[in-house]
Design brief:
This protein is of the alpha/beta class. It has a five-stranded mixed beta sheet with strand order 5-6-7-8-9. The chain has a four-stranded mixed beta sheet with strand order 1-4-3-2. α12 links the parallel β2 and β3. α3 packs across α4.
């Protein structure tokens, strides 16, 4: 029998929020060297804030009752995923990705430089930096610089460093960070990212990717990706490195997208400029959108870039699937979520351009997103849209198995691989196609195809200035 949410909620109400959080952190600590379902703990922590301490006569939480709560949430509504896995296995795995796999995001130092490049160095019609500073009291540079300091601190080697990291932002660390920037800037950074008992419920309520249906909340992306720190025992606790890594990768984008209506248009322009830097880095011949408009018949649909020597067509779409669709990916919801972005890029833009420019040659497509999309192979999404777009009969000009979806950080890796002369872009796409043709080697995420190249370091000239800016000694 499926346990209802109200049963779990009523159990949580018996205990104080403080006791619940303490047991959650204790559990994380005991499992710190193991792989375990951390998302279950995140759900319990969220519900502890929302429902803990509700009863008048609270009980003292013990290990047995904590384990009962944990297991109830771990098993909660497993039928939802199972039902999707039975019908369409890729949809079931997409739910698991939205619940779990996003917590596997890594951080390397170039991530900070990439964001500084997009949000600050590239000039556009709209001043993103000014908007961010007005809303946060921090420039883009200051925010990223402090992010980087915290990242370095949370990854110190306690056996060799004079600083010791034990899961908290210690006062000694905050003092040093303040000396590198200023106490006002560090305080503003923490105001944005720290939860306490006074603001937790409001911040949970205002989280843009929250799921209203309580029976599906155990599957959602945790709001800790926006608030990775918490006041606990009068110290600032780092909730978990996985949520801080996500915070580093995507906070500025998530924050401005939810708070500035002018941001999306400006970001799209800067995203395209960033991708163009990569094309210039590897010295390939290409036509941009403006050149394609001159080549193609008037009023034709175009793509952002065409690599004329290899028939590779590139379109940038800063898209992410809506929160509810991510954990309930029905055909209808997925189609509505992607019809004006990913599906439009293929059916309306890429097919029409390839049909006109290179109808008798093998063509390839790359759809670039900012955030990682679960489907890197377009084939499954082709099935979703083929009956909705009239020109799907023209897919022979650009077979869906020749089209790939990859995020901005994977793009940087590809540019580095090409720069190192380990492979050409067409060879990388051919490898991905070959891998995906066999269920034993198929990859859902494009970056997995790149593992064979053993990329060890980055030396991308378009990030040199930003990397230099962000060096600790330069501040």
């Amino acid at each position: 029998m499926e346990i209802p949410f109200t049963y779990i909620r009523n159990k949580i109400r018996k205990y104080s929020t403080e006791d619940l959080l303490r047991y959650c952190y204790s559990y994380i600590e005991t499992k710190k060297d193991q792989v375990f379902p951390i998302w279950t703990i995140f759900t319990l922590m969220k519900w502890s804030y929302q429902h803990g301490g509700y009863n008048t006569n609270l009980k003292k939480l013990d290990q047995e009752n904590f384990s009962i709560l944990y297991n109830l949430i771990y098993d909660f509504n497993n039928n939802h995923i199972t039902n999707f896995l039975k019908l369409k296995i890729d949809r079931g795995f997409h739910i698991l990705y939205s619940q779990q796999f996003y917590l596997q995001k890594t951080v390397y130092k170039e991530v900070f430089a990439t964001q500084l490049k997009i949000y600050d160095s590239i000039n556009g019609k709209y001043d993103i930096n000014k908007s961010f500073e007005e809303k946060t009291g921090l420039t883009i540079y200051d925010f990223i610089f402090i992010q980087q300091i915290v990242w370095l601190f949370t990854n110190v080697n306690n056996s060799t460093s004079s600083f010791k990291y034990f899961g908290y932002l210690s006062q000694d660390f905050i003092n040093v960070a303040s000396e590198m920037t200023s106490i006002e800037k560090v305080e503003n950074f923490l105001k944005l990212s720290v939860l306490n008992h006074e603001n937790a419920k409001e911040r949970i309520q205002n989280f843009k990717r929250s799921i209203n249906r309580t029976d599906l909340q155990s599957l959602e992306t945790t709001f800790f990706t926006i608030y990775p720190f918490q006041v606990f025992d009068n110290q600032i606790k780092v909730i978990h490195k996985s949520v801080y890594n996500h915070f580093v990768n995507y906070y500025i984008y998530d924050f401005l997208k939810s708070s500035d209506e002018k941001f999306t248009t400006e970001f799209g322009y800067r995203f395209e400029k960033y991708i163009e830097f990569g094309l210039k880095e590897i010295s390939v011949k290409y036509h941009d959108e403006n050149k394609l408009k001159k080549i193609l018949p008037k009023n034709s649909n175009v793509v952002d870039f065409c690599l004329s020597d290899s028939n590779i067509y590139i379109e940038c779409k800063a898209i992410e699937i809506q929160a509810y669709t991510s954990i309930n990916p029905t055909d209808e919801l997925l189609y509505n979520s992607l019809k004006d972005s990913i599906l439009k890029a293929y059916f309306t833009q890429m097919i029409n351009v390839t049909k006109t420019l290179t109808p008798n040659e093998e063509n390839w497509g790359i759809i670039l997103t900012y955030k990682e999309l679960f489907w890197s192979n377009f084939t499954n999404l082709f099935e979703l849209g083929k009956d909705k777009f009239q020109n799907s009969i023209d897919s022979k000009y650009l077979p869906p198995e020749n089209v790939f979806i990859l995020d901005i950080y994977t793009w940087d890796k590809i540019i580095q691989i090409i720069k190192d002369k380990k492979a050409t872009l067409i060879e990388i796409l051919q490898l991905a196609k070959s891998n995906n043709s066999n269920p034993q080697t198929s990859k859902q995420l494009f970056h997995m195809h790149l593992d064979i190249y053993n990329l060890e370091k980055f030396s991308l000239s378009y990030l040199d200035f930003e990397i230099e800016q962000l060096k600790i000694g330069n501040k």
